[in-house]
């Protein structure tokens, strides 16, 4: 946690609960706004600012990162990109690929190819 300025216990508890909810299931709420509505926080802007100060990124950005990390795991398990994109709430594989590349520096197809190559090399080295 990056805490840069003091917040009330109420705000700190709210952002911890929001982070825990995202960590538990990043796919539960499509938008960060839906998540905030679920918690009925009367000081939504304060909670969003505090989350960014404490965790170094906004709620939406954190939510997307968590989804993309789980997307990477799904791709490792062989789940088709189209299914992964849909699960992550992207309207197209192209939009998913753009977000994936922004987060990890390479598009999902290239990442999959590199990952498969690394697994093959490791398996060959064991023999």
Compact description:
By secondary structure, the protein is mostly helical.
Succession of helices and strands:
HHHHHHH
Major beta sheet summary:
none
Low-confidence stretches: none
Category by helix and strand content:
mainly alpha
The count of helical stretches stands at 7
| Strand percent estimate | under 5%
Q: Count the E strands.
A: 0
Calculate Rg over CA atoms.
18 Å
Mean pLDDT over all positions: 85
What would you call the shape?
elongated
**End-to-end distance, in Å?**
43 Å
Report the helical percentage.
Answer: over 70%
Description:
The protein is mainly α. Helix content is 72%, strand content 0%. It has seven helices and no strands. The chain has helices at residues 9-24, 32-39, 44-55, 59-76, 81-87, 93-104, 108-126. Helix 1 (9-24) crosses helix 3. The termini are far apart. 20% of the residues are buried. The mean pLDDT is 85.
Give the topology, please:
Blueprint: H1 9-24, H2 32-39, H3 44-55, H4 59-76, H5 81-87, H6 93-104, H7 108-126
